[in-house]
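Q: what sequence does this backbone want?
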């Protein structure tokens, strides 16, 4: 029988420590010339897996930090997913939110909201996703994550703010 989903108390988690681990992954990604995005999966107060953006290195648009962290969770994540928390430096995109749902990771903490992908809207309007995600908390060390992005990819700040003309809705799009 699968583990029962549990509520988590954000106040009892060391959000700063775990987000700093995700920021360290983002720093490594930025140093490697990738988008400065990092993620970690935490179980029972320990980081069990890490991920960083590797789009260029892997020549794949699917090489997202969150996806890598979830894939590297291994047997512990497979059997104890109900207690897992995904920490990421940027709000998960639809791919990564979907991966968290499919991995049964019900708790997500992120630093910067993403004004373009707006995954919080998916959570609000999709009953299937909402049923799986119990915790969706943004703003943890947001200033530090934004400063890191500014160092490695300033255009990314405009992107996640939704201010870049490249990412505004196409004329006639709803």
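A:
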């Amino acid at each position: 029988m699968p583990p029962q989903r549990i509520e988590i108390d954000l106040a009892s988690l060391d959000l700063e420590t775990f987000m700093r681990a995700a920021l360290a992954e983002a720093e490594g990604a930025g140093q490697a010339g990738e988008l400065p995005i990092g993620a970690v999966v935490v179980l029972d107060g320990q980081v069990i897996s890490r991920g960083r953006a590797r789009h260029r290195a892997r020549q794949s648009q699917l090489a997202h930090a969150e996806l890598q962290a979830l894939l590297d969770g291994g047997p512990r994540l497979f059997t104890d997913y109900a207690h897992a928390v995904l920490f990421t430096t940027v709000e998960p995109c639809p791919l990564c939110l979907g991966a968290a749902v499919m991995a049964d990771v019900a708790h997500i903490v992120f630093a910067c909201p993403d004004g373009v992908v707006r995954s919080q809207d998916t959570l609000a309007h999709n009953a299937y996703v909402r049923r799986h995600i119990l915790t969706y908390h943004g703003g943890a060390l947001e200033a530090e994550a934004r400063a890191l992005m500014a160092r490695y990819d300033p255009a990314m700040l405009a992107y996640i703010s939704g201010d870049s003309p490249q990412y505004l809705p196409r004329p006639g799009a709803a």
